[in-house]
Amino acid sequence: MSGPSWEDETRRTVLEGRAILERTAESLARSQHTAAETERVGEEVVSELGAQRETLLRSRQRLADTDNELSQTHVLLRKMKLHVFTNKIILIVIILLEICILAAVCYIKFFS
């Protein structure tokens, strides 16, 4: 009687060990699948981040170019303001000279 019971116990232990090994193998397969999926997602994220980096670098360059052009425009506007101011002063001087000439002509015509 002890023979079959020992064999049954051994067989049960072996079957339990085999079941544990199969579950472990399945768990490892799931872990490998998850790792492969995680790696694929990681590669996609890295690729997308690289594209976003390139976009940001181009935007940064465009911003620097715009800032440079804005500085040049500011200088040009300052020059234009100076020219407008100079033209106004010249125009005022010309008007004053015309008024003086007109006054002199009127004085000469009516008081001479």
From TrEMBL:
BP terms from Gene Ontology: Golgi to vacuole transport; intra-Golgi vesicle-mediated transport; macroautophagy; protein transport; regulation of protein localization to plasma membrane; retrograde transport, endosome to Golgi; vesicle fusion with Golgi apparatus
Segments passing through the bilayer: 89-110
Descriptive protein name: t-SNARE coiled-coil homology domain-containing protein
Subcellular location: Membrane
Alphabetic keyword roster: Coiled coil, Membrane, Protein transport, Transmembrane, Transmembrane helix, Transport
PANTHER family: VESICLE TRANSPORT THROUGH INTERACTION WITH T-SNARES HOMOLOG 1B, VESICLE TRANSPORT V-SNARE PROTEIN VTI1-RELATED
A single GO molecular function term of this UniProt record: SNAP receptor activity
Domain of life assignment: Eukaryota
GO cellular component: cytosol; endoplasmic reticulum membrane; ER to Golgi transport vesicle membrane; Golgi apparatus; late endosome membrane; SNARE complex
Pfam assignment, any one: V-SNARE_C
Protein family: Belongs to the VTI1 family.
Top-level taxonomy: Eukaryota, Metazoa, Ecdysozoa, Arthropoda, Hexapoda
UniProt topology in membrane: Single-pass type IV membrane protein
